[in-house]
Design brief:
This protein has about 425 residues and is α/β, with parallel strands linked by helices. About 45% of the residues are buried. The protein has two domains: about 260 residues, 4-Layer Sandwich (Metallo-beta-lactamase, Chain A); about 80 residues, Alkyl sulfatase, dimerisation domain (Serine Threonine Protein Phosphatase 5, Tetratricopeptide repeat). The longest helix is centred in the middle third of the chain and has 27 residues. A hairpin with a 2-residue loop joins strand 1 and strand 2. A seven-stranded mixed β-sheet has the order 1-2-3-4-5-6-7. The protein has a six-stranded mixed β-sheet with strand order 8-9-10-11-12-13.
Length: about 425
């Protein structure tokens, strides 16, 4: 089945989204229109073949850039004229060096790279926090050996709000809106009626709450969706997942993405304005169920619950309204006190297993973690913690939750008692 047929079946629900997870990478290419190629990778890359050379929106990531380059080269041997980075995430901004080598080999002019001006600050932050980013991405993607890069291809040109380019007679309009990142760009081709959305659209509930990453911007993201929809595009090329073709389908996907984020923003701000605590808000706010049922809005990567927490962080700071959290005791001291009251860490661990068996995995997670904090060297306690978080990981749908819970289970597995 080719990519466009697969995309059609996913959109209609004929195939479940599990048939092609948006963060899968088939490496396949589809020619969406004459002169417009789309490569399904982690992350996607789209190329337009103009009279003056290729315009490529995102050159893919540190692990997939070579295969993407090689795939595009089976379609066109023309030089890369311009690469646009939709943002600075490492799955989007590698591989320009391969096209630069093509240029040196063939005597072509060097390609240029264009991105939003904030990408430079992102790259600098990545250099300063390379160790942290390695750890959190190892955890998120269950990739223990992942190393975070510290060298980046800086753009040759940047812009702040909008930028119009003409390459080989084709016009490309670049727009900046904050969404998953503060350096985001989406690209509009008026002649092709095509939006190159980058990670503004990922065939999943918007990645606007990731618990281990920097601030995201739900309200701005919804506004961007509305701007895209107002252009009446006929093709939507996402940063992850497959193309959406047809004006009605594209309009529906963009509009419903906006509605999902707008609902979360409105509910969260209403409760914040009433003085509610963060915990009360998290337990109260719910995304519209009919939107989460859409094939392109399933919570298979991020989750609306995490978006709520990110909205609190954006508009309310880090204090969650619980005074005991303002200047808390060390976590281990609190855990030991609770364990003593419960009859010891082993009793807490045993209760965690009982609660998990009864189906309350959230409460079981608290108890298992408290037991491990109270007795960090107790193999039996860690065996219980590994079991609880293994069950939690198996019960989750999103990459974020699965990654964190699986990592916790793995941590404790290594400390647990070996079987007799």
């Amino acid at each position: 089945m080719d990519l466009l047929e697969l995309a059609d079946k996913l959109f209609t629900g004929e195939l479940p989204i599990e048939a092609h997870h948006p963060f899968a990478s088939s490496g396949q290419m589809a020619e969406v229109q004459p002169g417009l190629a789309f490569v399904d990778a982690f992350a996607n890359s789209a190329a337009v073949d103009t009279a003056d050379g290729l315009v490529i929106v995102d050159t893919s990531g540190v692990f997939h850039a070579k295969s993407v380059h090689d795939t595009i080269r089976t379609w066109s041997s023309r030089p890369l004229h311009t690469a646009v980075f939709t943002h600075g995430h490492i799955d989007h901004v590698f591989g320009v060096d391969l096209y630069e080598e093509d240029a040196r080999t063939n005597g072509w002019p060097a390609p240029r790279v264009i991105a939003h001006t904030a990408i430079a600050e992102r790259f600098e932050r990545y250099r300063m926090t390379a160790g942290y980013n390695a750890v959190i991405n190892q955890r998120q993607f269950k990739a223990p050996g992942l190393r975070w890069p510290t060298e980046y291809r800086m753009p040759d040109e940047t812009y702040s709000d909008t930028l119009s380019l003409t390459v080989g007679g084709e016009t490309f309009e670049l727009y900046h809106d904050r969404g998953e990142t503060d350096d985001a760009t989406w690209v509009w081709s008026p002649a092709r009626r095509t939006v190159f959305a980058g990670d503004m659209f990922i065939w999943a509930s918007p990645n606007c709450g990731n618990p281990q990453k920097a601030q995201r911007y739900a309200r701005d993201w919804a506004i961007a969706f509305r701007k895209m929809a107002a252009l009446e595009p006929e093709v939507l090329l996402p940063g992850h997942g497959l193309p959406i073709l047809g004006a009605a389908r594209v309009q529906r996907a963009l509009t419903e993405g906006a509605e999902l984020l707008e609902s979360l923003v409105e509910q969260t701000l209403a409760l914040m304005n009433e003085g509610a605590r963060l915990d009360d808000i998290v337990q109260t706010v719910r995304a519209p169920a009919h939107l989460l049922e859409r094939p392109y809005l399933h919570a298979v990567y991020d989750e609306p619950e995490f978006v709520v927490r990110n909205l609190w962080r954006l508009y309310g700071g880090w204090y969650d309204g619980d005074p005991s959290h303002l200047k808390p005791a060390p976590a281990g001291a609190l855990a030991r006190e609770i364990a003593d009251l419960a009859g010891g860490p082993s009793r807490l661990a045993a209760r965690a297993l009982e609660v998990a068996a009864a189906g309350d995995l959230r409460l079981a997670g608290h108890l298992a973690e408290l037991a491990a904090q109270a007795a960090p060297d107790d193999a039996g306690v860690h065996a219980a913690r590994a079991e609880v978080f293994g069950v939690r990981a198996g019960a989750e749908a999103s990459t974020m939750s699965k990654g964190i819970f699986s990592w916790a289970a793995h941590e404790s597995t290594g400390k647990a008692k070996e079987p007799a």
